[in-house]
Specification:
- The chain is mostly helical.
- It has one domain.
- The protein has helices spanning about 5-20, 30-40, 40-60, 65-90, 95-120, 130-150, 155-175, 180-195.
- Helix 2 runs antiparallel to helix 3 and helix 5 runs antiparallel to helix 6.
Length: about 200
């Protein structure tokens, strides 16, 4: 396991100790920011992005993995930097915003998949409803990252996403009766978020 700096470890430990929030119900609000950027309403987009930054920090507080947590801490200041560029009018292309959004969403996909895996492995300490939410969120973040990049997922990654979404629905409906394939589905999603997910040829329509 990678070793974070003493300061980083200290900050992360405080966040972990202080935060007992449950999983999100929805993806963080990058869609709204994107719509405002497309409409060339940059200052409102910057304000909306500041709200998204709060949501991201809340998720950082839920992180259980040192490596992912460290990357999330390195990513968090990028929200403020992008917001400042939007407010100043120095971001002139939607593509530049989408590139950063893809980075955020892919990291959040990894984060939620790891939470789902940890929760599944420790059922005494995690509600299966929370595992269901994290599985579904991981899959949806991975899909949205691909949309920002305008590239389709590989067939294998898409199957992992589809299976994860089905598991999230089943597990959420019957948390006391998880499907026998649950662990395999969570693991397959983990593999999908940790390797390149784009098809080499062809663009997403």
């Amino acid at each position: 396991m990678r070793t974070l700096s003493r300061i980083t470890m200290g900050v992360l430990a405080v966040m972990l100790a202080a935060c007992t929030a449950s999983a999100q119900d929805e993806l963080i609000g990058l869609e709204k920011v994107h719509q405002l950027v497309v409409a060339k309403q940059m200052r409102p987009a910057a304000r909306a992005l500041s709200e998204v930054s709060v949501e991201f920090r809340r998720e950082l507080g839920r992180c259980h993995d040192e490596a992912i947590g460290g990357r999330m801490m390195q990513t968090e200041p990028k929200f403020d930097a992008l917001g400042a560029k939007l407010a100043a009018g120095t971001v002139t292309t939607v593509g530049a915003v989408e590139k950063e959004f893809a980075e955020y969403d892919h990291l959040l996909a990894e984060h939620h998949q790891q939470l789902a895996a940890d929760g599944w492995a420790r059922p005494r300490f995690t509600k299966m409803e929370t595992v269901a939410k994290d599985v579904g969120l991981a899959a949806r973040y991975l899909e949205r990252a691909a949309r920002w990049e305008k590239q389709p997922l590989t067939a294998e990654a898409q199957k992992a996403v589809d299976d994860a979404l089905a598991l999230a629905k089943q597990l959420g409906a019957e948390p006391t009766n998880p499907p026998a394939t649950s662990a395999a589905v969570i693991d397959a999603l983990g593999q999908a978020v940790k390797r390149p997910t784009r098809v080499a040829q062809g663009r997403m329509q």
